[in-house]
Amino acid sequence: MEPEANTRQPVALIVGVTGMVGVAFTEALKKPTALGGPWTVYGVSRRPLPTWFPSSLLNKHIMLDTLNQQQTLKILAPLASQITHVFWVAIQVSESEESNISLNSTMLSNVLNALTSSPNSKLSHVTLQTGTQQYLGPIHDPTLLTQLVPRDSPFIEDYPRLPFPNFYYALEDILASYSRSLTYSIHRASIIIGSSTRSYYNSLLTLAVYALVCKHQNYPFRL
Fold first, then answer.
1. Rounded to the nearest 10 degrees, how much is the dihedral formed by the CA atoms of 73, 74, 75, 76?
2. First CA to last CA distance, the chain
3. What is the DSSP letter of 55?
4. For the chain, counts of helices (H) and of strands (E)
5. What is the CATH number of the domain that holds 85?
6. Which domain holds residue 180?
7. Which end of the chain has less neighbouring CB within 10 Å, N or C?
8. Strand, helix or coil at 186?
9. pLDDT for position 43
10. How far is CA 45 from CA 48, 104, 119, 121, 201, in A?
11. Facing residues of 189 across strands?
12. Cβ contact 162:138 at 8 Å
């Protein structure tokens, strides 16, 4: 008798699905060439899907405030036997880094607890997106910002942690606490350019094209 093939289809839960990276993940996972596919994709956001979102690519949209532990458990626990991968691209930022740690840690902990508390949990991998605050320190906190010592790029992944509170460190520590039951990967993006009506980073692409034109025409670069 031939061994039974593993036919389990991967099911992704994208937390923060309406953000720039959430949209990109949705589109990438639904491509016929997506690694490990075909994927079933569930998306979580606090608000309804905007009109511009490619909702046809989602198998399910879940409107959920992941800060609410009971609501998160009620909605996500029944899906624990389906979801195999979590893509974490959610973020809440305030001016206090201690508040950032509390908010973002609570969200991630609530989701992971809901998806792993069942004996039938299928969660096997979590992808966490962080960023350059890993190397620069708590840049959103005006009190701590004045104490930071700039680091020159390029940044090195095994740089030691800075002696400041940092919600990225907290999220990594939460994932590490689950390392016996699942694997995880951390992606420290720098500047992200993509589909968004609110990101001022997108203007950098226009600026780069302008710089190339100036160089090609031998014009001075003026802003």
1. 40
2. 71
3. G
4. 7, 6
5. 3.40.50.720
6. 11-192
7. N
8. strand
9. 98
10. 7, 14, 26, 22, 22
11. 131
12. no
**Does some domain include residue 30?**
yes
Tens of pLDDT, residue by residue over 121-168, are 999 999 999 998 999 999 889 999 888 878 888 888 888 999 999 999
Per-residue confidence band for 117, with pLDDT thresholds at 50, 70 and 90: very high
Sign of CA dihedral 35, 36, 38, 39: negative
Q: Considering the domain boundaries, does residue 75 fall inside one?
A: yes
In a domain, 213, yes or no: no
138 by Cβ neighbours in 10 Å (0-12 / 13-18 / 19+) ranks as: buried
**Helix/strand/coil for 133:** helix
172 Cβ neighbours under 8 A, 6+ residues apart: 128, 130, 186
Contacts of 81 (CB under 8 A, 6+ apart): 118, 120, 121, 122
Closest CA to 14 of 26, 2, 5, 6: 26
Reading the block at residue 110, the tokens are 């609530």
The answer to the question of residue 53 being in a domain is yes
d(CA 59, CA 75): 16
Of the candidates 177, 78, 166, 79, the one whose C-alpha atom is nearest the C-alpha of residue 126 is: 177
